[in-house]
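Sharing a chain and its predicted structure for anyone who wants a worked example. Both blocks are below, sequence first, tokens second.
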Amino acid sequence: MAGKIFADMKNIVLAVLTLLIGGAFLAQKLSAQKQQQQWREFVYPQDGFAITLPYAPKPYYDQGDRHINVYSVQMGKTVVTLRAISRLMDCETALADQWEEADKKNAKEPLVKGSLKQISPAGMKGLEYETDLGAGERSLHRFQCADEHRFYIFRAGYAGKQRPADVDRIIKSFHLVSPVHDH
């Protein structure tokens, strides 16, 4: 009788182990599929741009301001946010103000040395810099001015000192499209 109980217990343990191993394998496979999401281009003519993302963000107004649409995606611990601002502003002044703000001593988020630079993606004027958030995290800040009515602000928060490839992929995919104007 003890031999039969032992055999039954052995079969139960084998069945449980088989289920656990099979479940772990399936979970790993699903996780790998999720990581290789179907990236695709999303076009936002109302804000005059297109961008490649792992999924469609749900745009919302920044603090209720209908002139600032916010687009955000999260990939693990990395969050990329794009603010599309559509209001009259002087590009040179706005960029100079941002440069001054980034270069402040005693800033809440200290500037990563050597990261502040002028950029000109696709002929737009802009600037970019990184800040140290502490606890091994950083934030990328990127400002791009398309014209006197369209200004784009990227912010990406991530862990580590190396900017994730997905952040670069998103930023490099950004391009202007003919805007649709509200009347």
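Comments welcome. The chain has two domains: 1-36, 39-176.
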